[in-house]
Amino acid sequence: MNEQQTIEQLHGLKLFGMANAMASQLESPSTQSLPFSDRVALLVEAECHDRDNRRQRRLMAQAKLKMRNACLEDIDYRPRRGLDKPQLLSLGQCQWIERHQHLLISGPTGVGKTWLACAFGMQAIRRGYSVAYHRVSRLLEETEIARADGSLAGFRSKLAKCHLLILDDWGMSPLTDIGRQDLLEFVDDRTGAGAILIASQLPVAKWYEYINEPTLADAILDRIVHRAHKIEMRGDSMRKKLGLDDGEA
């Protein structure tokens, strides 16, 4: 069997990284002079790297982050923003996701809540966690559609399986009775099984009023707040400064 046939077989086995690395080795005299075990190690390393990249691309596509270029390395830590760098660096390790804890980001409009939420989402993807980003109002609309067409169980199951659920624009639109119940179901599905990140203009102290139904408010907030890390952002609107029309910086 010649080398080209071997490469084709590697493709057939879906070992794409290994196949590409072998093709590169055949074109590199210096690599061909390495011991056999070293060459095999390089092939395996290339395959692992390729699989990691493909998994990250798949997780990115599934997450549907609003701001895909957001990353924790680019955070603006100027004092006016009220960000605690040690806290954010610690949260960037994603142990809170592993422990099924939650992260609550609050602050005025335009200060960068959505951007920061997406940056944490990207960090989670980098570390191999699955992420789902939703604006609350749109999530509830999609839930109604799923209920109408009979796919609600599958829709909820899919969300329950992701490691991190990002709920953006929490508190922006009034909740209906069924919307409150749906929120409770989504939160309850993740209790002890997944992490939630919530971004909201409303301070956490006003979330009870936002839910506006004592029994459901108690049930929802009891499942979220007591297992949550909190980030309270301050400062002027980054959107106005950067001339952005949509989203947050």
Protein described:
The protein is an alpha/beta fold. The chain folds into 2 domains: 59 residues, no CATH class; 179 residues, P-loop containing nucleotide triphosphate hydrolases (Rossmann fold, 3-Layer(aba) Sandwich), CATH 3.40.50. The chain is 55% helix and 11% strand. The protein contains 13 helices and 5 strands. Strands 2-3-4-1-5 form a 5-stranded parallel β-sheet. Helix 10 links the parallel strand 3 and strand 4. The C terminus is likely disordered. One of its GO terms (biological process) is DNA replication.
Give the CA-CA distance, first to last residue.
56 Å
Helical coverage, percent range: 55-70%
CATH class of the largest domain: Alpha Beta
Secondary structure tally, helices = 13
Residue stretches low in confidence (pLDDT < 50, at least 5 long) are: 245-249
Oligomer: single chain
Number of strands: 5
Biggest sheet layout: 5 strands, parallel
Order of helices and strands: HHHHHHEHEHHEHEHHEH
Rg result? 23 Å
As for the number of domains, it is: 2
Could you name the CATH topology of the largest domain? Rossmann fold
Could you give the order of strands across the largest sheet?
2-3-4-1-5
Q: What brief labels describe this structure?
A:
alpha/beta, 249 residues, 2 domains, 5 strands, five-stranded parallel sheet, 13 helices, disordered C terminus, elongated, Rossmann fold
